[in-house]
Design goal:
With 262 residues, the protein is an alpha/beta fold. The chain has helices at residues 3-41, 54-70, 81-89, 127-135, 170-181, 217-225; strands at residues 46-50, 74-78, 93-94, 103-108, 112-113, 119-120, 137-145, 161-165, 184-187, 204-209, 230-233, 235-236, 242-246, 252-256.
């Protein structure tokens, strides 16, 4: 084997090692954030909303451990098909909003959280059900790794704000958003099927990559929500009470808001 080949292989191995180390750090960050939230906010005889995404997997894992060890009586309400399967796979008690319209807390991930606790959610396509469940909870708790913590929206998350829309209206909605606020709103395309992503509710998703000078997210969220054909936005404004961020050094950063639900 030539010296050049050895050098190339060494560089590849080093790159793989660095990538694996980073992935391990991220997964550990997700885990410690999720465990902290479940330990702090889930109590006996409560109904808990279970969010969607990779960080929530660790929350459900910890919840299952506590239910077994502490014999907790907890009912879990899912926000998606994925969340429902997680609940069933971990042999937790499955509920729904018809039977349990008021939740004690909801634990979910986020694509980005800014300094004012505004959230972007919906990277996994479950924004509508996630927002419904969160709105029914007395306490809405976010769990995430350190890459989701930003000063302002768009600083870390570059894929844009998801907007769930009725299929027949996606073109006029896209044009309305772009003409009013700027940026680019593109329909989300599926990876393993031909055509657009279809949500659990049978709708399409526009991912709006917005200009960096926008700041009044409460106003923007309200205005976009009122466009005919918009089902829901991935902007979660004045909803989350607490966010737990797992950090790269193994600590957990907590961020709070002034949200108070009755």
């Amino acid at each position: 084997m030539s010296r050049l080949s050895v050098h190339v292989i060494a560089r590849l191995l080093h790159s793989v090692s660095r990538t694996s180390s980073k992935m391990g750090s991220l997964e550990n960050a997700k885990k410690i954030a999720a465990y902290n939230a479940v330990d702090r906010y889930v109590q006996n005889n409560t109904v808990v909303g279970i969010g969607s995404g990779s960080t929530v997997v660790y929350a459900v894992q910890r919840l299952a451990e506590r239910v077994k060890e502490e014999r907790l009586n907890v009912v879990c309400v899912p926000t998606s098909f994925q969340a429902r399967q997680l609940i069933l796979d971990n042999r937790l008690t499955l509920g729904d909003l018809e039977v349990y319209p008021k939740l004690d807390c909801a634990i979910d991930g986020a694509d980005e959280v800014d300094a004012e606790m505004n959230l972007i959610k919906g990277g996994g396509g479950c924004l509508l059900q996630e927002k419904i469940v969160a709105s029914c909870a007395k306490q809405f708790i976010i769990i995430a790794d350190y890459t989701k913590n930003s000063e302002k929206l768009g600083e870390q998350y570059k894929k844009g704000i998801p907007i769930e829309v009725v299929p027949m209206a996606y073109v006029p909605i896209r044009r309305k958003i772009e003409d009013t606020y700027g940026g680019s709103a593109k329909i989300r395309m599926a990876l393993s099927k031909a055509g657009p992503v279809v949500t659990d509710n049978g709708n399409f998703i526009l991912d709006w990559q917005f200009p960096g000078n926008l700041t009044d997210w409460n106003k923007i969220n309200t205005e976009i929500s009122l466009i005919p054909g918009v089902v829901e936005t991935g902007l979660f404004i004045n909803m989350a009470e607490k966010a737990f961020f797992g950090m790269s050094d193994g600590t957990v950063k907590e961020q709070s808001s002034n949200v108070q639900k009755i």
